Every structure is written in C-alpha cells, then in structure tokens.
C-alpha cells in the first residue's frame, strides 16, 4: 500500500488522525517516529479477512501486503494500525480489567504480607479438562478471579491467546537443563517494585485483548484485490 496514492486526511488537532490523540509516554515517543506507511500495514496485518484469505501464504512465507483500492478503507486501516500500535506498546499503562474476586479481594483490607499474598507459582483455569472454565482463573491459593470475558481469548498471538501467554510466563519455573529458576515474582518485586504486578498484568491484557478485538472487528473487508 502506498500513502502517496491517496489524499492525506486532515491531521490537525481536531482530527481523528491527529498525533495529539495518541497515547503518552513510551507509545507517544514510538509513534512520533512511526512512519505513515507502517500504520495501514499494522492495521491490515490484524484484519481477520486478510488472515483468512492469505492463511496458506502466511504459514509459508513473509506477509505480502495487498493494495487496498478504496481511500476510505486505506485510512481506516491506517487509523486502526496507529491505535493498535499505541495499545500494544503501552499495554502496561492501560486500565486493569475489573474482574470479580471470588477469593482474595483486598479492596477493604490490604494483605499484611503483600509479597507472600500475591506470590504466583502457576495460574490455572478453574474446572477440569475437558470442561475448563476460562472465565475463572485460580491465581494462587489465596486469590481466584472470575468474570473474564471469553471473547478476550479471541486475541491470539503466535497461535495462542495473549492471556494464556501471560498465564504461562508469569510463573515460577526451573529450566531442566541449566537449573536456572525463572521467577516472575522476583521481577515484580525487584524490577517493577510491585508484588501485584503479575495479577495486574493479567487484568491489563484482558483490557488490551478486548480493545484489540473491538478494533479488529470494525476493520473494513478487503474486497476485490485484483
């Protein structure tokens, strides 16, 4: 897709395409350097129509970017790509999704030992296979959360829902070959300075997943590309 092929929309402060509408902080710094041509590409790569139509090609080779014929569609992909980029870069700054705490609600009384209370070994779904309840996650022996929208699992990254990547990585795991212990709690406490980080990250990725799928489902169809 070539930006020069289409008239550029108004980029003033009152426009939907204005740089002032992007997120602050790290995302803002990245997007200020983000080339105009990258936004429609990033938007198109999230298109369900694109992924379905070119599924065979995408499994064997690098993505090939088709040229969209309609200017309105081009700018729709461009705007979506820019918003998605801001959302995905700035994922640690989004609002945590308001889950329900079946166990471990600290809204009234804070835990006396936060590091112990929020320590995570391995998150898991409630229920048993093959009837796992993905709307409920057992975070640890003290915390169980529910009310996770199932549509949040529709956002898939590298063949797996983003939420399941968080569940897999935010844990304590020992590498069999080296004996090195990967402890998400140490990162939360020593680097982030917040023992609740793994839990809040999971909640934030719920928000990111839902917002991503809302944008993706609103993308225009590719139409005739011949």
Textual characterization of the structure:
This protein is 38% helix and 13% strand. It is elongated and about 65 Å long. Helix 2 (38-45) packs across helix 5 (71-89), helix 5 packs antiparallel against helix 9 (197-217) and helix 7 runs antiparallel to helix 9. Residues 1-24 have low confidence and may be disordered. It has helices at 25-32, 38-45, 48-53, 55-58, 71-89, 114-117, 162-169, 184-192, 197-217, and strands at 100-103, 124-128, 131-138, 144-146, 156-157, 160-161, 172-174, 181-183.
The helix content is: 25-40%
Summarize model confidence as the mean pLDDT. 85
Assembly state (oligomeric):
single chain
The stretches of 5 or more residues where confidence is low (pLDDT under 50) are: 1-24
Task: Give me the secondary-structure category.
Answer: alpha+beta
Count of strand segments: 8
Largest sheet: 4 strands, antiparallel
- Give the C-alpha Rg: 21 Å
Q: What is the N-to-C succession of helices and strands?
A: HHHHHEHEEEEEHEEHH
Number of helices: 9
Distance between the termini: 14 Å
Which word captures the global form? Answer: elongated
Strand numbers in spatial order across the main sheet: 1-4-3-2
Strand content: 5-15%
Write the layout of secondary structure elements.
Layout lengths: L24 H8 L5 H8 L2 H6 L1 H4 L12 H19 L10 E4 L10 H4 L6 E5 L2 E8 L5 E3 L9 E2 L2 E2 H8 L2 E3 L6 E3 H9 L4 H21 L9
Antiparallel strand pairs: 1-4, 2-3, 3-4, 5-6, 7-8
């Amino acid at each position: 897709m070539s930006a020069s092929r289409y008239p550029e929309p108004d980029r003033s402060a009152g426009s939907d395409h204005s740089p002032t509408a992007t997120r602050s902080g790290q995302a803002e710094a990245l997007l200020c350097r983000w080339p105009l041509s990258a936004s429609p590409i990033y938007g198109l790569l999230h298109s369900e129509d694109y992924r379905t139509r070119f599924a065979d090609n995408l499994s064997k080779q690098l993505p090939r970017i088709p040229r969209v014929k309609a200017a309105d569609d081009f700018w729709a992909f461009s705007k979506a790509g820019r918003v998605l980029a801001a959302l995905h870069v700035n994922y640690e700054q989004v609002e945590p999704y308001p889950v329900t705490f079946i166990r471990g609600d600290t809204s009234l009384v804070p835990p006396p030992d936060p590091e112990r209370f929020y320590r995570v070994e391995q998150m898991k779904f409630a229920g048993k296979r093959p009837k796992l309840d993905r709307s409920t996650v057992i975070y640890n022996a003290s915390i169980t959360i529910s009310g996770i929208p199932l549509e949040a699992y529709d956002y898939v990254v590298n063949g797996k829902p983003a939420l399941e990547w968080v569940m897999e990585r935010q844990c304590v795991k020992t590498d069999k070959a080296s004996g090195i212990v990967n402890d998400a709690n140490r990162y939360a406490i020593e680097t982030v300075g917040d023992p609740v980080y793994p839990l809040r990250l999971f909640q934030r990725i719920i928000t990111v997943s839902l917002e991503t799928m809302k944008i993706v489902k609103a993308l225009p169809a590719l139409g005739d590309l011949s």
